[in-house]
């Protein structure tokens, strides 16, 4: 009896040791798995890589809400940006090309827990290397690493909309006057800053019935500020409409039965006696060309030809005769597009 009791006691003790050892193994395996997750899926390099892939996949909402991407009021002030700077470009369908062939090439851990993560990638034809500074934040479930960018990777794009306040980037058309007031609204050329996801390539242009701007590509790298000019020019339709207004104006001038039609670019001084009202006609209309000026589209001084037919009596010998004569004149003008799409033409 005593011998069996001793054996039972020894078995129980061995069982305790066995279960304890198993528990240690399980805890060790868990900690090892946790460490592996924190080094891989929840590591600083993976954090940076996920951000870059979100940009590449045009998942801009995910990229923009990545910790450390958004700029607070202090950061905006430090960058010299207004608190209400436009975030309109922070959406899908705007980026022309994101980073490709993404590779993490270096990860340097610092004593304060932050990391310097270097990524290589391709932006269209350019090979780019960027080092991102990331720092730890409160862990997920208290055990899984979480990170944020110490410096936001957002870029600032200063868009100059020359000769037209509107521009198109990707699928989005924006008005550079959106956050302006007062006299700023009247400027012929407008400039406005926009926050933009980076790294990325953006295509800027504009095209409508009256104005067109050739596409311009802009590659922006993280945490940089870049500028682009969208240079709007008059379309043939714009020129045709100004030509029609000018021709109509000159035709109205030609209906005035006087040697000097009022507010018109032509007229004739005659020393003989005018017997009948003169008759004007336009032999050649000035051909409209429009180039951007300081405050409007301008037509430089351009020649036209008016014809006068008038019955005269010579003061020398009293003879009657008809004067038929062409007179060259020049016209210059300013043309502006009103808010309703109509065109204002002002002769100089």
Strand-helix topology:
Layout lengths: L1 H38 L4 H13 L3 H5 L8 H6 L21 E10 L5 E9 L2 E15 L3 E6 L5 E8 L3 E4 L2 E4 L14 E7 L3 E8 L3 E10 L4 E7 L1 E2 L1 H19 L18 E2 L4 E6 L6 E2 L4 E17 L6 E18 L5 E5 L1
Parallel strand pairs: 5-11
Antiparallel strand pairs: 1-2, 2-3, 3-4, 5-8, 6-7, 6-9, 9-10, 10-12, 13-16, 14-16, 15-16, 16-17, 17-18
Protein name: DUF2993 domain-containing protein
Keywords: Membrane, Transmembrane, Transmembrane helix
Organism: Agromyces sp. G08B096
Your description of this structure?
This protein has 348 residues and is an alpha+beta fold. It folds into 2 domains: 21-234, no CATH class; 236-347, no CATH class. The chain has 5 helices and 18 strands. The protein has helices spanning 2-39, 44-56, 60-64, 73-78, 236-254, and strands spanning 100-109, 115-123, 126-140, 144-149, 155-162, 166-169, 172-175, 190-196, 200-207, 211-220, 225-231, 233-234, 273-274, 279-284, 291-292, 297-313, 320-337, 343-347. The strands form 4 sheets. Strands 13, 14, 15, 16, 17 and 18 form a 6-stranded antiparallel β-sheet that branches. It has a 5-stranded antiparallel β-sheet with strand order 7-6-9-10-12. The radius of gyration is 38 Å and the shape is rod-shaped. The model is unreliable at 1-10 and 24-38 (pLDDT under 50). The chain crosses the membrane at residues 12-37. It comes from Agromyces sp. G08B096. Keywords: Membrane, Transmembrane, Transmembrane helix.
